[in-house]
Design goal:
Elements: H1 3-27, H2 40-61, H3 65-93, H4 108-115, H5 117-128, H6 137-161, H7 175-195
Helix pairs in contact: 1-2, 1-4, 1-5, 2-3, 3-5, 3-6, 3-7, 6-7
Length: 196
């Protein structure tokens, strides 16, 4: 597929990501330690946005290929995981993702720009335009390190706030079960990376 089409896709995807980040940052107040960055959705969107920026630079100049590949090796499976987890959970019980008593409703346009469109753009770029991408064990290690860092970050936020960013995490009986869930999520990300 053409470089121009790839550039158009990634640029459009970046604008959708920036719309999502801007709308959340300035449209929805978030109290508590970590603010909006308690949420994997926001962290994933930030990594996907950085990946898009570096991809645009790479397409225009031919530079930063290694940086782009490192970022997309994390962004693409994490965005995939976000969509795979988010939509079924929201359809089953939104309360597993949003604390009870929270007045919170995302307009569909914003919901799609946070939880679906970044996934689609990352995957089309990764699978359709990135034929020369070399999968490497270091990418799998990076996925597990990213997951481990998020696990510690979420626990730190819980320690400060007294609640989990996602109520689903409070359903686990202990840290071992929560940790197993995070390992499972890292495994899903690594599987998504391998099959793409």
């Amino acid at each position: 597929m053409s470089k121009g089409l790839n550039l158009l896709l990634v640029t459009a995807g970046l604008f959708v990501n920036l719309y999502g980040l801007y709308s959340i940052q300035f449209g929805i107040s978030m109290v508590g330690y970590g603010g909006h960055f308690q949420f994997l959705t926001i962290i994933g969107l930030l990594v996907a946005s950085l990946s898009s920026i570096v991809r645009i630079i790479n397409l225009l100049t031919g530079h930063l290929k290694v940086v782009y590949e490192s970022l997309t090796a994390i962004a693409t499976p994490v965005e995939g995981l976000i969509s795979v987890l988010y939509w079924p959970i929201v359809l089953y019980d939104r309360g597993m993702l949003i604390p009870k008593g929270t007045v919170f409703g995302l307009p569909l346009k914003l919901d799609l720009s946070l939880h679906l469109i970044p996934t689609i753009v990352c995957w089309i770029d990764f699978m359709g335009f990135n034929r020369g991408f070399k999968r490497a064990p270091v990418h799998i290690i990076s996925i597990y390190v990213f997951t481990l860092l998020y696990y510690f970050w979420v626990n730190k936020c819980h320690e400060h706030n007294g609640y989990w960013p996602y109520p689903l995490l409070g359903l686990f009986k202990n840290d071992a079960q929560r940790g197993a869930f995070f390992v499972f999520c890292a495994w899903v990300c690594s599987l998504l990376y391998k099959i793409s």
